[in-house]
């Protein structure tokens, strides 16, 4: 039984997997026994020093952790130029785009495949939107020699061709999903259908901090390496904690990974950045800003939906943010006010993308480009001695074709 | 005796028939429901369409999408239920669907609406017993049965929790998988039903993958009821607004096989 400290923001979920009114285990009965087994096994793994040691070892020698903490001098300077006198905060990045496979997704995949093997599962399935989680899953499956099936919306297969090819090179079977709009939510439906038919031997590696309990918790725990490292690095480099953390949010795994270790540091503010797509009054993927609580894919959380509870399609330039829901812990953190959430449009994200390329020589993925756009707005409002730490959760190689298209450039 | 209890106390096995509400249109559904009754269905299961039917195979997925594309709203489903109740005062009607459309206006709203429409039971695919507080109490307060599913993965230790708070009948999903795919071997169904009935005091109906009168008759010999869904939904897909005739014919064949199969557990 978890000891509940009422003064902590870090002791969720409760024993039933609820973060306040959010989270839970809304799954078909076929999956329920497996979800309960997974929870039991996760508790054991968490308490097992050998499991933790293997996880840490793989993160260090295979993934390349710790990732650097980087002060971005020219971006800081550029943003200060247009700021009022005395304003223009220092911008720092947690460089998770330098991880093996180019994004934060691998942290979680390492943890989950170790759990899968611990549970004796011999087949791995996953869903993917932008393809980063699919690539990370295919990677760990190749590393450990397990067969891998990745469900990917047909629309995403078309707009993320390089990642599809990467997954195939890594030996994964990529199954295009044509139901619905052929994006991440449809891929997740199809992965759940596969899982329910193959529970005896199959482990579902969910890519974000969402889904039925215990997934939101365990994904958060595996991704919290980001925030733990960043917190220690910041203390060691500048001797204090950052003033504001910023991270992009689709399902929210990179954001919760950065935020969670800082939740009980009252001086640290946090800003989650949703995808406003064409604008919050048009098509977007900002579940917190434009949705309301409901149940989908095993958890209760904020969802984009109509008055009847039918799920509406999200839209974002970034395939990784194009999901009509959000992890349940973010829903809770929003409701209790510990984390602030904002949103950034496709156009603003494209500007943020180019800004980082030009000022720092770093090509970011479109997902963290949303965080960069939010940082650009925020830095101008904060004092020069204040520190913003943003999570650079993925690199942009996969996005150069779609960025070129949006900028009207023919490759 | 409730309508559901009566349906399982007719001295023969019970045929439960599923179609998706609003498929092909909300206007066409009442005649299809009437065809189920005319063909001899004992319990009617009316699907509430959802954008993300993740426990369903292609047949019912597409039926959900057709219904939504035809503009089917929750209000239509409730009106269809209410109309059915007026035409068929004694035939039990069960709604089946996913959590979000059911709870989106609050469990109390949904339970009140079901009671007003004369609904006897509700099957919610993604509210397992662990999340019962989400909907169960509101339904039970109206005397509406939350009908739960048990599957090949539901072991003896878990079964009491699944049964706790459920009512009407237990829906045994014969295969771990989605609707409309393969069916389980009869021997394994027989073994599972016998095992479940050591604990369950409510009837056990078996579904998933049951398509033909032969299969239905076989299962009817070893269980209290048989659920047929995808095979009927396929006929609706094929015949659209003219589906009532073919649906009635298939249900007549199914009910003949099911009603003759048995053996009387009640």
What can you see in these coordinates?
The complex is a heterodimer of chains A (411) and B (266). With 411 residues, chain A is an alpha/beta fold. Chain A folds into two domains: 19-61 and 105-219, Rossmann fold (3-Layer(aba) Sandwich), CATH 3.40.50.1100; 64-102 and 224-406, Rossmann fold. Chain A is built from 16 helices and 14 strands. In chain A, strand 1 (18-19) and strand 2 (22-26) form a beta hairpin. In chain A, helix 2 (49-63) packs across helix 4, helix 4 (105-118) packs across helix 5 (132-144) and helix 9 (215-223) crosses helix 11 (253-259). By secondary structure, chain B is an alpha/beta fold. In chain B, 44% of the residues lie in helices and 14% in strands. Chain B has twelve helices and nine strands. The longest helix of chain B has 17 residues, at 244-260. The A-B interface holds A 16, 24-34, 179-180, 185, 188-189, 192-193, 196-200, 294-298, 303, 305, 307-312 and B 50-57, 61, 65, 68, 73-74, 98-105, 125-128, 130-131, 134, 148-155, 158, 162, 173, 175-178, 181.
Short description:
Chain A has 16 helices and 14 strands. Chain B has a nine-stranded parallel beta sheet with strand order 5-4-3-2-1-9-8-7-6.
Task: Please give the structural blueprint.
The complex is a heterodimer of chains A (411) and B (266).
Chain A: E1 18-19, E2 22-26, H1 32-46, H2 49-63, E3 69-71, H3 73-81, E4 90-94, H4 105-118, E5 123-128, H5 132-144, E6 148-153, H6 154-159, H7 161-169, E7 173-177, H8 184-197, E8 202-204, H9 215-223, H10 225-238, E9 244-248, H11 253-259, E10 269-277, H12 287-290, E11 292-296, E12 298-303, H13 328-336, E13 340-345, H14 346-360, H15 366-379, E14 387-391, H16 400-406
Chain B: H1 3-7, E1 14-20, H2 29-39, E2 43-47, H3 58-69, H4 74-87, E3 93-97, H5 99-103, H6 107-117, E4 121-124, H7 136-141, E5 145-146, E6 149-150, H8 159-163, E7 170-173, H9 186-197, E8 204-207, H10 213-220, E9 225-228, H11 230-239, H12 244-260
Parallel strand pairs in B: 1-2, 1-9, 2-3, 3-4, 4-5, 6-7, 7-8, 8-9
Helix pairs in contact in B: 2-12, 3-11, 4-6, 10-12, 11-12
């Amino acid at each position: 039984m978890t000891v509940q400290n009422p003064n902590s923001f870090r002791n969720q979920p409760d024993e039933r997997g609820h973060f306040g009114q959010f989270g839970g285990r809304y799954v078909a009965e076929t999956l329920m026994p497996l979800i309960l087994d997974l929870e039991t096994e996760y508790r054991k793994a968490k308490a097992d020093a050998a499991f933790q040691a293997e996880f840490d070892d793989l993160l260090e020698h295979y993934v390349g952790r710790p990732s650097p903490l980087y002060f971005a001098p020219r971006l800081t300077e550029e943003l200060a130029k247009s700021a009022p006198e005395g304003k223009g905060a220092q911008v720092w990045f947690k460089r998770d785009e330098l991880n093996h496979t180019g994004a934060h997704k691998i942290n979680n995949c390492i943890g989950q495949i170790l759990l899968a093997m611990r549970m004796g599962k011999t087949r791995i399935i996953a869903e993917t939107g932008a393809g980063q989680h699919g690539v990370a899953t295919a990677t760990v499956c190749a590393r450990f020699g397990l067969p891998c099936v990745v469900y990917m919306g047909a629309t995403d297969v078309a707009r993320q061709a390089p990642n599809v090819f990467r997954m195939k090179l890594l030996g994964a079977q990529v199954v295009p999903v044509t139901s619905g709009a052929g994006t991440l939510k449809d891929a997740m439906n199809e992965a759940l259908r596969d899982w329910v038919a193959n529970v005896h031997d199959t482990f579902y590696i969910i890519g974000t901090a969402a889904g039925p309990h215990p997934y939101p918790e365990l994904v958060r725990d595996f991704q919290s390496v980001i925030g733990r490292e960043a917190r220690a690095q910041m203390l060691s480099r500048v001797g204090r904690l950052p003033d504001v953390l910023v991270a992009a949010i689709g399902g929210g795994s990179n954001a919760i990974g950065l935020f969670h270790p800082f939740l009980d540091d009252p001086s640290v503010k946090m800003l989650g950045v949703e995808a406003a797509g064409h604008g919050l009054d048009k098509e977007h993927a900002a579940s917190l800003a434009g949705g309301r609580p409901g149940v989908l894919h095993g958890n209760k959380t904020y969802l984009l939906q109509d008055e009847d509870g039918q799920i509406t399609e999200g839209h974002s330039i970034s395939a990784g943010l194009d999901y009509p829901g959000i992890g349940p812990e973010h829903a809770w953190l929003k409701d209790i006010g510990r984390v602030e959430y904002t949103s950034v449009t496709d156009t603003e994200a494209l500007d943020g993308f180019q800004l980082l390329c030009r000022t720092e020589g770093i090509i970011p993925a479109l997902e963290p480009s949303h965080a960069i756009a939010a940082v650009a707005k925020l830095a101008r409002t904060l004092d020069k001695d204040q520190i913003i730490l943003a999570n650079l959760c993925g690199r942009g190689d996969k996005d150069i074709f779609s960025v070129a298209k949006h900028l009207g450039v023919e490759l | 005796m409730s309508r559901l209890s009566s349906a399982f106390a007719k001295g023969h096995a019970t045929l439960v028939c599923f179609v998706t509400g609003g498929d092909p249109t909300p206007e066409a559904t009442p005649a299809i429901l009437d065809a189920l009754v005319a063909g001899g269905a004992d319990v009617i299961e009316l699907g509430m369409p959802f954008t993300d039917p993740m426990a369903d195979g292609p047949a019912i997925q597409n039926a959900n999408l057709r219904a939504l594309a035809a503009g089917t709203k929750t209000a239509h489903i409730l009106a269809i239920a209410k109309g059915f109740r007026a035409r068929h005062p004694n035939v039990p009607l069960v709604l089946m669907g996913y959590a979000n459309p059911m709870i989106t206006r609050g469990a109390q709203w949904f339970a009140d609406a079901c009671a007003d429409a004369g609904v006897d039971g509700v099957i919610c695919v993604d509210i397992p017993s662990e999340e019962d507080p989400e909907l169960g109490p509101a339904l039970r307060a109206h005397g509406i049965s939350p009908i739960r599913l048990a599957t090949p993965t539901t072991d003896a230790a878990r079964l009491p929790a699944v049964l706790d708070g459920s009512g009407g009948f237990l829906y045994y999903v014969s295969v771990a998988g989605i609707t409309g795919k393969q069916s389980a071997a009869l021997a394994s169904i027989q073994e599972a039903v016998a095992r479940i009935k050591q604990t369950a005091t409510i009837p056990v109906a078996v579904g998933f993958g049951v398509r033909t009168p032969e299969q239905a008759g076989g299962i009817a010999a070893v269980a209290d009821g048989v659920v047929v869904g995808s095979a009927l939904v396929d006929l609706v897909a094929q015949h659209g607004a003219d589906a009532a005739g073919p649906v009635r014919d298939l249900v007549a064949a199914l009910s003949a096989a099911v009603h003759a199969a048995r053996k009387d557990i009640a």
